Q: What sequence folds into this?
């Protein structure tokens, strides 16, 4: 009934997963409701600051501009391992969306070895970071969408020592994606977890309390790799099954010496 079309818009690479929706809440017969969240995959930087001012939907009935609940600078590295933040929550009339645009401000930067470097964002401030889609929002339905930045792949160090923002973003929804969760023992024995398929790798840092969550996974089988700290050994747990709309609980995973 509903589907995302996959598109690639250079220099922005967008991976769009199958759409989903829910009937939670009563929105009446005339409008759909959009909740859009921001989350991130971890990166080897101290901070990645993105200045997001608004979101635009390019639709068959014209352009819709949404003011963010909290416009301004977001440190992407605060939003991983299951952490997200609500960007917009709006009612809209039924329509088909062909593009989502993130309108950026000027205060974009990355922190490396304690030094804050400006991020160059060609054309992003004026025309927005463009995510090409094809999607119809229907009346009476609540849509929960996540924009998942991959900060590690989104920042390019140039030969001059400057840094360029070339965002890699996944869009996924709760009903047509799943997750893997659990906790490690001993605490702090591993720092990173990856869910691996023959064609892709998804990962996140492990929280200080030993818990972890990798979201936005399509249904299928994953080899789950735990990257251990010095004094412990990496392990791989094969064939962990993920189903759309649910969280696969791995329970407590012991990291060996």
A:
């Amino acid at each position: 009934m509903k589907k995302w079309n996959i598109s690639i818009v250079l220099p922005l690479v967008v991976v769009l997963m199958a759409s989903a929706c829910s009937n939670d809440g009563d929105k009446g017969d005339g409008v759909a409701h959009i909740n859009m969240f921001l989350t991130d995959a971890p990166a080897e930087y101290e901070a990645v600051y993105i200045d997001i001012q608004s979101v635009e939907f390019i639709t068959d009935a014209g352009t819709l501009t949404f003011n963010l609940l909290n416009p301004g600078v977001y440190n992407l590295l605060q939003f991983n391992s299951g952490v997200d933040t609500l960007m917009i929550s709006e009612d809209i009339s039924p329509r088909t969306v062909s593009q989502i645009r993130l309108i950026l401000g000027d205060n974009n930067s990355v922190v490396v070895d304690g030094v804050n470097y400006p991020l160059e964002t060609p054309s992003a401030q004026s025309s927005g970071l463009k995510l090409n889609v094809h999607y119809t929002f229907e009346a009476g339905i609540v849509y929960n969408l996540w924009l998942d930045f991959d900060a590690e792949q989104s920042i390019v160090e140039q030969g001059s020592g400057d840094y360029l923002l070339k965002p890699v973003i996944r869009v996924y929804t709760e009903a047509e994606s799943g997750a893997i969760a659990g906790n490690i023992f001993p605490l702090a024995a591993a720092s990173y977890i990856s869910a691996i398929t023959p064609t892709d790798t998804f990962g996140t840092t492990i929280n200080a309390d030993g818990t972890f969550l990798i979201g936005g996974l399509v249904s299928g089988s994953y080899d789950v790799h735990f990257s251990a700290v010095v004094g412990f050994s990496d392990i791989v747990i094969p064939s962990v099954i993920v189903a759309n709309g649910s969280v696969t609980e791995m329970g407590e995973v012991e990291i060996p010496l």
